[in-house]
Amino acid sequence: MEEGSSNPFRKLLSIGEVAERSGLAVSALHFYEAKGLISSIRSRGNQRRFGRDVLRRLGIIKVAQRVGIPLAEIQAAFDTLPQGRTPTATDWQRLSALWKDDLDARIHRLVALRDRLTDCIGCGCLSVESCPLRNPYDRLARDGPGPRLLETDD
Questions:
Q1: What is the H or E stretch that residue 144 is in?
Q2: Predicted TM-score (pTM) of this structure
Q3: Which contiguous run of DSSP H or E holds residue 66?
Q4: Architecture of the domain delimited by 1-99
Q5: What distance in Å separates the CA atoms of residue 151 and residue 108, rounded to the nearest whole number?
Q6: Is residue 35 within 8 Å of residue 75, measured between CB atoms?
C-alpha cells in the first residue's frame, strides 16, 4: 500500500528504520524489547513495527544508561508512563527527578573514591606504609575480601 493510503502500518517504523533513527543496533532493539523497555506489534508478514514514541523512549534509555541508571530502574520509570504515547518534557522532568538523588550520591561516592585512590589501595595489602596505620593487624580481613576502605564513606 502507498504511504498515504489507509495502511494501518503507515505511521509505524520497521526495526531497520528505528535502528537508523536511534543509532542503535538491531540487536540492542531486540534486547530492549525482550526486557520490556520498548514494544512492537507484528505486521501481517510477522515483521516488527514500532510506534514513533519508541524513538523518544530509546533516547531516554541512552541518556539514562550514559549516567549509570540500571535498566531495572529505567523499566520501573517507564512503567509509570502511558503505553503508546511519546514521553513529554514533563515526563522527562519527573523521571530525571527520580534519578537525581541517586546520581548525586554516586557522584559523591566517586569523588571520595577518586580522592582516596592514591593514598591506599584499600584492602590491607599493597601499601605497606599506610595500610598498617589504617588497618592494623589486618582487622579489615574479617569484613571480607577486596578494597574495604575505599568503599566506605568514612
A1: none
A2: 0.66
A3: helix 53-66
A4: Orthogonal Bundle (1.10)
A5: 12
A6: yes
Closest Cα to residue 58, out of 90, 106, 104, 15?
A: 15
Amino acid at position 63, single letter: V
Sign of the CA dihedral with 85 first, then 86, 89, and 91 last: positive
Its sign, for the CA torsion 130, 133, 135, 139, is positive
Cα separation, 98 vs 56, whole angstroms? 18
Q: What angle do CA 46, 48, 49 make, to 5 degrees?
A: 120
Cell of 5: 493510503
What does the pLDDT look like over 104-141, one tens digit per residue?
998 998 887 777 766 655 554 555 445 555 666 677 77
CB burial class (10 A; 0-12, 13-18, 19+) of residue 57? buried
Q: Is 91 helix (H, G, I), strand (E, B) or coil?
A: helix
